[in-house]
Design brief:
alpha/beta; Rossmann fold; 2 domains; 5-stranded parallel sheet; 10 helices
């Protein structure tokens, strides 16, 4: 009998066909259909004891269709012998491009100008004075795959000055020309004309950008967040935008999601918002689905998947002023063989713009 694979994600047709050729796919997304499955592909579901016990002892792995895994309780899954994976290479380009798109939309007042024109408002160009981003300072908090690609686009393509803070960045990391690593998060925040966030959500990074950090930013600076909503203290952000300290914001994530329709951020003309869709592009969805399916199929035949979850050591490192942590790979004993990388992983460095 083919193995059962549960998914709450609408997989790309090509990935779905590949999975269906080797497994029985339960695509309802209903928790009542979890019993008996050997693998689960999740989107935003919370995976902890209840989820795992409902599936049963034959559950081998859970894979996140995307990169963030703040809803996946990795320690609990590990105790049950369940592998946890994600698709970290897949959303890089789409999310980085979206970040730059939000930045330019805020800087050029594009959304407000679009609305005014559609409403047949008077053509008063002085009301839509934009900002030229060349030579402006971009501060990047978090230099993983997405943060690094944003830095590359903005440094090489837009000729911006780029400063990076990441306590986990290796000392020998190769960065694009014109990108400078800064050892103190406050220095990046204080110098940035545009501050963009690319950190995972954890107990350490929740409200990483709060009242203090927002007031440390230049008057008129702009905040960009495509990571996770709770990385920013939303109430403090609303205050900083409302009193004019910040010049604008570009947000793809909120706390909670979806946001309350009465959330002031949705009604500020200098804030550009999108509904957590930064990675949702044609190629982004294809890569996430193919990576998730490839890893499921690897585990089902006893091979080691490409992107087993890691855990970070060094509490408080995101708020520290120097590197104080390292990555600790999780290698459970149930996986005995080595395998090739999944078909959809990146074949090399992304082209320069």
């Amino acid at each position: 009998m083919p193995p059962l694979v549960w998914t709450e994600v609408a997989l790309h047709p090509e990935a779905l066909a590949r999975l269906e050729a080797q497994a029985t796919v339960v695509a309802t997304g209903r928790y009542d259909d979890l019993p008996g499955v050997e693998a689960a592909i999740i989107g935003g579901s919370h995976v902890s004891t209840d989820f795992i016990e409902r599936a049963g002892p034959q559950l081998k792995m859970v894979v996140r269709h995307g990169i963030g895994y703040n809803t996946l309780d990795v320690p609990t899954a590990t105790r049950y012998g369940v592998l946890c994976c994600n698709t970290p290479d897949a959303p890089t380009e789409s999310t980085a491009e979206h970040t730059v798109g939000l930045m330019l939309a805020v800087a050029k007042v594009i959304v407000r100008a679009d609305r005014a024109l559609r409403n047949n408002d008077p053509w008063v160009r002085e009301d839509f004075l934009g900002v030229e981003v060349r030579d402006r300072v971009l501060g990047v908090i978090g230099c993983g795959r997405i943060g690094r690609r944003v830095a590359e686009i903005c440094a090489l393509g837009l000729q911006m000055q780029v400063l990076i803070y990441d306590p986990f960045l290796p000392g020998n990391a190769v960065l694009p020309q014109g990108v400078r690593v800064v050892g103190e998060i406050d220095e990046v925040i204080a110098q940035a004309d545009f501050l963009t966030l690319h950190t995972p959500l954890s107990a350490e990074t929740q409200h990483l950008i709060g009242e203090r950090e927002l007031r440390l930013m230049k008057r008129g600076a702009c905040l960009l967040n495509v990571s996770r909503g709770p990385v920013v203290d939303e109430a403090a952000l609303i205050r900083a935008l409302a009193d004019g300290h910040l010049g604008g914001a570009g947000l793809d994530v909120f706390d909670p999601e979806p946001p309350d329709p009465k959330n002031p951020l949705l009604h500020m003309s200098h804030v550009v918002v999108t509904p957590h869709v930064a990675s949702f592009t044609d190629k982004g969805v294809w890569r996430m689905s193919m990576s998730a399916v490839d890893q499921v199929l690897q585990v089902l035949v006893g091979e080691r998947p490409a992107f087993i979850m890691t855990r970070r050591r060094g509490r408080g490192a995101w708020r520290a002023h120097r590197s104080a942590a390292c990555l600790v790979p999780y290698a459970p004993p149930v996986i005995r063989s080595t395998v090739s990388q999944p078909r959809c992983t990146s074949s090399g460095p992304m082209p320069k713009p």
